[in-house]
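A favour, since you know our structure tokens better than I do. What I am after is a single protein written out in full by you. Could you add the entry underneath, on a fresh line?


***
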Amino acid sequence: MLTIVCGLIGLVVGSFLNVVIHRLPKMLDVDWDNQAADLLEHKNMAEVAKRLRPRGTVRYNLMTPASTCPHCGHKIKAYENIPIISYLLLRGRCASCKAPISIRYPIVEAISGLMAAYIGWKFGFTLSMAGALVFCLALLALTVIDIDTQLLPDDITLPLMWTGLLLNLNNLFAPLSSAVLGAAAGYLSLWSVYWLFKITTGKEGMGYGDFKLLAAIGAWLGWKMLPVVILLSSLVGAIVGIGLIMLTRHGRNTPIPFGPYLAAAGLIALFWGESINRTYLQVF
């Protein structure tokens, strides 16, 4: 029963994650436009600032305005927003203009529901279950946002890191000392790689969001899981990157988001990290 309930909750949260994935980058754009306009006005460039300001005057957040069809502006009704079911009943098209709806929406909902159901089955009705749900669903949102925009917003990564540290005050997923070291080591490890690569090549190899995401994973799972996370994410990222270069026209200088690989490795470490670490230590 708990598995079923968690799965249903995951479906509903997955529907909300679609809103977060779509709107949060746009909210950041509006905020950046406002900051740029403030700076321009401060430098007595009011005419240029006016060109940016109109976008920032529209109220736009996760709740407002109501969800609408991007093609015809049809306001999406509650019964048209039931996770997966509405998509199937509408046959993947807008109820008004019949424009196609991206298949990504039900995919995100399905992944969210399956992850939540598995967490309910694995952890039972415990605080660990609630924490794992927050951790996994946040990683899912970050993954899709990074694929879309190559951004890992501080609005998710930093609260995720602090939540992990707070939950580990009671050694929920790792001892507090391990969590603090994990957060610091996670950030500094990729930060060091970033600067080594930049000094060597003169180019930026990754973004600061990757540092913060690995810091958040370290805060949740402790420093002992970081080698597994870094190894898995780097291995999969290298395979995918080489595959894209060899099989497609993806240029070597075209950036590839690293956040999805970190997130996937973090999920693997949460569920099976202890077993992987034991096997690793036995082999080496």
Q: What stands out?
A: The chain has ten helices and no strands.
